Amino acid sequence: MIPYPAWLSPGDNAWQLVAATLVGLMSIPGLAVFYAGVVARKWSVNTMLMVFSAFCLTLIVWVLWAFKMGFGQPMLGAFLGTPGPIVGSAGEQARASIPLLNGAMPGFRFPESTLAYFQFVFAAITPVLFIGSVIGRIRFKVWLIFVPLWITFAYTVNAFMLWGGGFWAAKGALDYSGGYVIHLAAGVSGFVAAAVVGPRLRRDRDGGRPNNLPFVAVGAGLLWLGWNGFNGGDPYFAGADAAAAVMNTNLATAVAMMAWLVMDMAFGKDRKPTFLGGVNGMICGLVAITPAAGYVNGIGAMAIGLVASVLVWIAFTVLPRKVWPFNKVDDALGVVYTHGFAGLIGGLMVGLLADPKMIVYLGSGKTAGFSAAGLFYGNPRQLLIQAGAALTVIAWSALMTFLILRGIGLFMKLRMTDEELATGDLAVHGEQAYDDLEPARVPAMVGASPSADDGPDDPFLDTEVASEGAR
C-alpha cells in the first residue's frame, strides 16, 4: 500500500489544509470573540451564535450544491456553475480541479475535499463579516434563512465570475484572495441589509463602549495571523509566491495600523491614539492587500496599506455625518468602511501596482510564467478591468441582498421587537454572557452609525450622526 496518489504533493496538501484552518479560525473563534467584545454586553451571545450558525449553514449548503456553483462546470455561461454535491468518495478523494481553469494554471496536487474546504472557509467568513452591519436588531430566524440563500444566489456568482474561470476571470480581473468576492461583497451586502432591516434602538446607537477590550484584542490577533492562511493559501501551492503574499500581507497591515494611529493623533477629535482605532487600521490593511497580495512587491504592499488606511479614515470620519445614504443607514460596526471601501481601494490599486516581476506560477520550457502588470508597469487596461469587476460585484451583491431580505420579509418580520431589543440575549436566547449583566449601550466603534429615530419599517434613518467611531 502507498499513502499518496501519484499526483498528490504532501507539502501542498498540508499547506492548503493548514491555510484553510487558519482562515476558519478567523471566523470561529476570531470574529465571534471580536464582535462579542465590541458590542453591548446584552448582545454578546446573539453575536457569537450568529457567527457559529453562519459557519455551519455555509458548510452544509457548500458541500450539497454551492461549491460546484462557484467552481464547477458552467451552467449559465460565464456567470454561474452547475450545482451539485461533493460528498461522495470521488467528490472528496479525486484530484481537485476547476474546470474552466484547466490548462490555464498548474494542475492541483491535492484532493477535491481540500479545495472545497479551503474555499468553504472563504465563503463562510463573508456573511460572518457583515454580521457587524446588522447586529443588535435582525431576528435570529431571519439570519438562519438568509445565510443559505445569500451564499447560493450572491456569493457563488461572484466567486464563479472571478475565481471559477467565469466572465471577469476571462477578462483578466485580479482578485488574489477576496478583496472583491469577500470584502467588497460583505461591505455592500451588510450596508444594504442594515438599510432593509432598519435601525437599532436609539439608546443602543447613542454611543457606549465595548464590553470587553481583551476579547477584541484576541479576536483582532486571530484575524491578523489567520490572514497568513487567507492570502498565503491562495496560490494553491506552497511556493515562493505564497511566501511573498504572507510577507506583503503583514507589511500592508503594519503600515495601515500605524497610519490610522497617526491620523487619530494628528486630526482626530481627541487627538489621542486608541486601541480600537488601531484595530480599524489593521483591518483596512488586511482587507486592502487581499486582492493584491501576490501581485505586488513589498513597496506596493506598503503603499496599499497607507492609502487604504488614510482614505478609509477620512470616509469613516466624514461620510456618516454629512453624506447620504451613509448618514441615514445604521451600519452598526461600519463594515461598509473597513471592508467595502478598503476592499474596493485595494482592488483598484492592483490595477496600478501589479508588478510583472512577481511571478505567481513559473514557466517551464516554452510555457510562460504567470504574472500581472498594472498601470504603473505599462498596462493601463488593468485598472479599467478592475473597476468593471468591482461595479459588477457591488451591483449583484446589493441586488441579491435586497431581494432576499424583501422576500423573507413577506413571511416574517426582519427586525426584533422593541421589547427584545431592549433586553437582548436573555429575551432572544434565554442566556447571557455575563452573570452581572447590567444595561449597556452598543459602542461607537468600527464605524459607529448615526443616531436616529427608532422605526422598524423605515429602512433609512432620519437624523444626522450623533456619535463618532472609535479612533
How would you characterize the overall build of this protein?
By secondary structure, the protein is mainly α. The chain has a single domain (10-80, 107-349, 380-429), classed as Ammonium transporter AmtB like domains (Ammonium transporter fold, Orthogonal Bundle), CATH 1.10.3430.10. The protein is 60% helix and 0% strand. It is built from 17 helices and no strands. The protein has helices at 10-38, 44-71, 89-93, 112-129, 131-134, 140-162, 167-171, 179-197, 202-205, 213-232, 240-267, 275-289, 298-322, 335-353, 381-409, 418-423, 425-429. α2 packs across α4 (112-129), α11 packs antiparallel against α12 (275-289) and α14 packs antiparallel against α15 (381-409). Residues 440-471 have low confidence and may be disordered.
Give the helices and strands, then pairings:
Blueprint: H1 10-38, H2 44-71, H3 89-93, H4 112-129, H5 131-134, H6 140-162, H7 167-171, H8 179-197, H9 202-205, H10 213-232, H11 240-267, H12 275-289, H13 298-322, H14 335-353, H15 381-409, H16 418-423, H17 425-429
Helix pairs in contact: 1-2, 1-4, 1-10, 2-4, 2-6, 4-6, 4-8, 6-8, 6-15, 8-14, 8-15, 10-11, 10-12, 11-12, 11-13, 12-13, 12-14, 13-14, 14-15
